[in-house]
Amino acid sequence: MMALLARDLKLAVRAGGGFGLGLAFFLIVTVLVPFGVGPETALLTRIAPGVLWIGALLACLLSLDRILALDWEDGTLDLLATAPLPMEGIVSVKALAHWITTGLPLVLAAPVLGVLLNLAPGGYLWVLVSLAVGTPALSVIGTFGAALTIGLKRGGLLLSLLVLPLYVPTLIFGAEVARRGAEGLEVATPLLLLGGISFGAMALLPFASAAVLRINLR
Amino acid sequence: MVLRVSNLEISRGGRAVLEGVSFALAPGAALILRGPNGVGKTTLLRTVAGLQEAEAGEITGAGESMAYAGHSDGLKSMLTVAENLQFWAAVFGRSEIEAALAAFDLRELAGRLAGSLSAGQKRRLGLARLMVTGRAIWVLDEPTVSLDAASVGLFAAAVRGHLAQGGSALMATHIDLGLEEAAVLDLSAFRARPRAAQGDEAFL
Amino acid sequence: MGRYVRFMSLWEYANPVKFIRTTDVVLPWVSVLAVLCLVVGLIWGFFFTPEDYRQGSTVKIIYLHVPAALMAINAWMMMLVASLIWIIRRHHVSALAARAAAPVGAVMTLIALATGALWGQPMWGTWWAWDPRLTSFLILFLFYLGYMALWSAIEDDDTAADLTSILCLVGSVFAVLSRYAVNFWNQGLHQGASLSLDKEENVADVFYFPLLVCIAGFVLLFIALVFLRTQTEIRARRTRALIAREQQG
Amino acid sequence: MMPDLGKYAGAVLSSYAVALGLIVVLVALSIWRARRVKAALDLVEKRNKRHG
């Protein structure tokens, strides 16, 4: 398992695209928003937490199809399925690798991009915390979507259609934590709910992803 | 560990292709599957490897002692030859890769990225992967594709060495490896009689 | 004792041929009843009920809005049950019935959304409010779209049935989560459930009885459509199976 | 005959139009596809009977 994680991380570093593309996309989305809604700082301050969450979510979505597709195309998944690793473990490690290469950089970049959106001073910490708690759920749910659409020709678009509705609860609670944090309100309740969704998804969804992958491999 | 297949029935795309397939593969033995294209060699091997479920029949002795190599080698072009092997060794809980590199004449290529190898070299690396798994039963699907005569010789020697150590090999191949000790099983004899596909039966 | 030997198990209807034979008999009756209920209920509601003192004539939209909303959720529930039956017992009719129900559920969701928006415009002064109920239905609609898209994207019938069943299961959990999340996110303008047992909040009797007839009509319409569409799916599958057999020789 | 819908006539009438329209389209499409698929199946079944 550790070997699989180490290999995925090494591949992400070598191939370059892993970290860079998602981050660049996040940056561009954040930069485009003021062009769309106008440069008024008070407005930007108000929408900053939500925009950061949407940007992170879309950047995450962009890289989902790479989680399993590459290993599927070169036959690695077939070989991994015959290796002494449980399929649930394989999909969990794949999701973890995706989080480390895509989710974590987004979490760390969000406060920096918050400056561009004139995020309220109290918001930086909670944007960081909410993304740190919420993005693992995005990776795990995304892995499920990637497993469902593996090997389909028009998989990319279908993947978005399947995954985006599943992202709704995570987005709502995550953005709520960030927004309340920025406005100096109590954040404990949404944070607990966000954590619940994140841990629940991490604990249960790998079973669904593994079942789906076994069906797709046969 | 004896690999035993009894009265196996398998299907491809929901359609029965082979039935009544039975054989046993003892340690030190090799079995070569033959038959025209489409007879079900790949499907049989994937079923033995556990990637696909059999429609009927039983397979015992595979599972934890089996290493599978299919049409694709599962190599990462951005990793070096040595790193690719180290990864697969680690997946199977091992670390030794020197013997495999030597057996397939990959020592000099060890530091090269797998993406820069020729097709034949990649195949050799894919086969070297079998040695690092430490598994006793090799299940090989067309292992000699894109190998030149010398490389086929290397492969045959590796298989012979594996058999000598008490391993066994089940493979589908058309070319003559010069493995006199290998038994040959022609799958044409087990072709399934035409019938409805498994999933379709309920609708006919 | 002997009487029970001939008792027919419910599972026998999972045989495609038996299903078609049975529904062929039932379908005309259900259809006629559905049309009857809808015509009676809607005419009763539209022409012979008074206006609400607060909502004016818009209250008449209730006869479409509430039954459609109920069926939008019930259709998904039915798909969930059918998916579970497919996963556990692998009855083909069950998987195909889930597939057949999805477009019906999607249209019901669309009707609930459209009538809701048309109702909301005069009542709340806006076509669309991000009210929890409306939002939940919009999310439900997206789930229907994804489910149908996955069915049509996969070529192998049984693989498609397996994958969509798992999606339906996972989707159900996330749909419930979304419902709570959306509630938390916005407390909303929408009135409570129209048919709740709480007498205070309930709609008055004059509206209640025609509404019940309309609900019965929508339920029967749903059943009739699912029967018809499941028959179609079974026939399509049988056609493919026969052609495949011909080609095999 | 027609009840007086007052100032909300537009909303009420368009609700009925949209909802009934969607239902009619759904029913029509279902029936149309049912007929087509049934015809295709009959054709194949007849062919199968003839050939044995």
Structure description:
The complex is a heterotetramer of chains A (218), B (204), C (249) and D (52). In chain A, 55% of the residues are buried. Chain A has nine helices and no strands. Chain A has one domain. By secondary structure, chain A is mainly α. Chain B is built from five helices and eight strands. Chain B is an alpha/beta fold. The mean pLDDT of chain B is 85. Helix content of chain C is 78%, strand content 0%. Chain D has a domain of 31 residues. Helix content of chain D is 83%, strand content 0%. Chain D starts with 8 loop residues before the first helix and ends with a helix. At the C-D interface, α2, α3, α4 and α7 of C face α1 of D. Chain B: Keywords: ATP-binding, Cytochrome c-type biogenesis, Membrane, Nucleotide-binding, Translocase, Transport. Chain B: InterPro entries: AAA+_ATPase (IPR003593), ABC_transporter-like_ATP-bd (IPR003439), ABC_transporter-like_CS (IPR017871), ABC_transptr_haem_export_CcmA (IPR005895), P-loop_NTPase (IPR027417).
List the keywords.
heterotetramer, A: 218 residues, mainly alpha, 0% strand, elongated, C: 249 residues, 78% helix, globular
What fraction, in percent, of the residue positions of chain A are helical?
over 70%
Tell me about the biggest sheet of chain C?
none
User: How is the main sheet of chain A built?
Assistant: none
Oligomer: heterotetramer
The chain-level structural class of chain A is mainly alpha
The total strand number of chain C stands at 0
Number of domains of chain C: 1
Q: Give the overall shape of chain A, derived from the CA principal axes.
A: elongated
Poorly predicted spans of chain A: none
Mean pLDDT metric of chain A: 90
Distance between the first and last residues' Cα of chain A: 23 Å
Count of β-strands of chain A = 0
Share of helical residues of chain C: over 70%
Mean pLDDT of chain C: 84
Classification by helices and strands of chain C: mainly alpha
Helix and strand sequence of chain C: HHHHHHH
Q: How would you spell out the order of helices and strands of chain A?
A: HHHHHHHHH
N/C terminus separation of chain C: 48 Å
GO cellular component, one term (chain A): plasma membrane
Family (chain A): Belongs to the CcmB/CycW/HelB family.
Protein name (chain A): Heme exporter protein B
Subcellular location (chain A): Cell inner membrane
